[in-house]
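Regression test attached.
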Amino acid sequence: MLGSDQFETDENGLTSDGYRCLEPSSKKAMYIVSLIIIVVAAAAAFAVVFFAKGDEYRWERIAAVAAFALVAAFRIVYPVIYYRRYRYRIAEDAVDIRRGVFVITHELVPIERIHQVEVSSGPILRMFNLADVAITTAGGTAYIQYLEKDEAEGIAAKLKDVVVNILQERD
Amino acid sequence: MTDSVYRNHFTTIIARTLSAVIFISIWILYMTFSNEEELKVEYFLAVVAVLALAVFCVSWRIWKLTTYTFTDSELVVFKNTVWKAKVEIRYDRMASVQVVRGFWNMIFGTSTLKFNVNSAVNSRNAEATLVLRKDLADELRETINNRMFGKFTTSLQEDTDIPSMIRVTNAEVVIHSLLGQPTWSIVFSLLMLLYSVWGLATGSAGNFIIGAAMFVFTMAVPVVKVIIKYGNYRIYRIGDTITVHSGLFVTSRKSFKVGKVNSARMRSPLVPRILGMCTLEAEVVGAMDDMGIPLICPLKKKAVVRDFMKQILPEFYLEEEVIHQGPVTLGIMAVKSVPAAAVWLAASLIIRDVYADDLDSIWLNVILIIGIAGAAVILAYMASRYRVRTFSSGEKLFRITRGGFDIADEYLMYDRVQIAGVSSGPIQRRYGLGTLRIMTLSSVGYRDIRSGIFPMDVIVQVPETVIGRIRDGRYDYRECP
């Protein structure tokens, strides 16, 4: 169910079982987030190297540089793999989200359980006309990330309509 | 039922004012004496009087402008103060009704009614709280119970005629208070006790006081609170309503419908586990106590608790074949645990080496022992987690057993699952294994429950069954919170 071949898409951008992939501009947004994290990690490593002078702090300096190298390497590779593996599907009765780099997660939210749907867009996402959709149930929140803004609004509107129809049928 | 309008009992004004006076007095005295100043009694009394008058006036105004209206279908709380608010709570949305008699209730002969709805938002605090004269509170509770639960018993009948479905002695409550806490909490408390004894033996007053204070706050106070909270414990079920009645000095009576139970749990910290004992807990919004334990049955023998669960919560009882983690799982767990143990041991050896010239040999040996013991605990925890984590599933329920030293059997209904997911790391994927993740409502909001590592085709049936029951109509929203 979570093998790498489940993420292959056709010419329409759909997997064999109807999942959609992210917009290419989402990778740019992920790279900007990675760049910010790398800069912060570099600043922290530099602070350790600069202030922990002397032979007695040699191991601390080595550890700081090694930690920075690991963080930088991970954040450079992360957007590529995350973008290639991120898939979502809005079915009749459930929202399906697949994502992950090392640990691949498949999350299922029954539409019947949805209480609230919210579209949000921070400064980095707004640069690329992207948005996240937060789907809230009584037991927690699931997210569909890095969607093209109109797509996000369309998904939110569709989910709200389905939820309202369910409630009206019950009344 | 015609609309009934209530206000809080007027003694809430007095209780609030007295509480403020006591708090202000203690604070002023503390500030005065900590600055080593002389207390001027007339100024002290003047300040306290002015503040008490201010609190009294504000409390009186809030009391005057807040009303509680019980209609045929809902409770309406209307606050016409500076921050106006109108809270409407439908009876069919209420998860639990609690009657509490605390210190001020005992003094003034009142009871506090607490109403909770089944929602992850603001689940820890009651949606509405109303203080009334005791007999009036009992009468109102009986009326609300009729509307919510279809119960037609009076409080007096509940206290005298309806026996508890399980006998819980106060001695068992004491045992529960001592052994029912998480193991890490007990170990930490004992370490603090040892620390205070060491401070006393070495003549270090500061270390003694710190150790003793930590022991009191982490062990002694919770033990006393549990004994006071769960003394005289009684529990019974009438129809689909469960009522828990307990309290040595502060009595509490909580009622909730079985339909509002989101999940059930049989929990066993390490020592009770060795003794073959466990507790029974139910996650119901608003039924949680100050210690965070939604208790149905305190510590008793596992067989007794299991039999009791069949009586009190048969809807959550499951006796299906148990699936254990496979041998490959141990290798996967070792990938994390063995390096962690090695890092812990290496760190202790490095610290020992760094301080070799500064510390006595006794302390160096203590550091070495901590290093070896810590590594052994990490590996033992891994082995225990491998052995105890299981999974089983039935038509309406599934069970996840999780933990390492302290274990918990979580009984969940497919129809109460809010979000379901499976995750799989690189090594797990190679062997077709994964971890189940369930998000559901709890007494304090929502809970994130993760299973052990099992074959993917076993755990993926949970999210598929959740959706399948909705599709084919087996899921009935009216039976769910």
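Expected vs. actual: identical. The mean pLDDT of chain A is 88.
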